[in-house]
């Protein structure tokens, strides 16, 4: 399920939007959980993303009801073929794209009171740390 499709405003009793968890999952170099072959094992980041997708749309934490949205970003070079894919994997050329994608996703949905959770594996962990430093 695409996070953009599952997003709904969650009005509270006063007609205001309820806070939400914004979760971004950045996978590792060459890893793309959404297009795995039968032999490939998904990363823990992708498995966590799929687990979060199955959670209820709302959860109560310390007396406050939170919504949630989640976004998965495949690893550097995972969707490129041939020489371009090899160079991207070797040099991490697309890491900046991962950072920008994650940051823009958060910026598009963040409202005061929201909680941001970043997860990453390998270069995806580096990208998640970079996004955290920008916030």
Name the quaternary structure.
Answer: single chain
Q: Which strand order do you get reading across the main beta sheet?
A: 2-3-1-4
Largest sheet: 4 strands, mixed
Distance between the termini: 26 Å
What is the SS-derived class? alpha/beta
Total strands: 4
Write down the Rg: 16 Å
The succession of helices and strands, N to C, reads: HEHEEHHEH
Work out the helix count: 5
Protein name: T6SS Phospholipase effector Tle1-like catalytic domain-containing protein
Domain T6SS Phospholipase effector Tle1-like catalytic: 20-135
Pfam family, one: T6SS_Tle1-like_cat
Question: Mind explaining what this structure looks like?
Answer:
InterPro entries: AB_hydrolase_fold (IPR029058), Tle1-like_cat (IPR018712). This is T6SS Phospholipase effector Tle1-like catalytic domain-containing protein. This protein has 135 residues and is α/β, with parallel strands linked by helices. 38% of the residues lie in helices and 20% in strands. It contains five helices and four strands. A four-stranded mixed β-sheet has the order 2-3-1-4, sandwiched between helices. The longest helix has 15 residues. It is globular, with a radius of gyration of 16 Å.
């Amino acid at each position: 399920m695409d996070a953009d499709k599952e997003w709904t405003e969650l009005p509270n009793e006063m007609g205001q939007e309820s806070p939400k968890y914004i979760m971004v999952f950045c996978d590792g170099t060459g890893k793309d959980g959404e297009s795995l072959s039968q032999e490939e094992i998904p990363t823990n980041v992708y498995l966590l993303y799929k687990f979060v997708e199955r959670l209820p749309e709302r959860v109560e934490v310390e007396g406050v009801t939170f919504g949630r949205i989640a976004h998965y970003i495949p690893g550097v070079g995972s969707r490129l073929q041939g020489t371009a894919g090899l160079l991207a994997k070797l040099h991490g050329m697309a890491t900046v794209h991962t950072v920008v994608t994650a940051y823009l996703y958060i910026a598009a949905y963040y409202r005061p009171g929201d909680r941001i959770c970043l997860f990453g594996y390998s270069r995806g962990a580096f990208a998640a740390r970079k996004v955290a430093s920008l916030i």
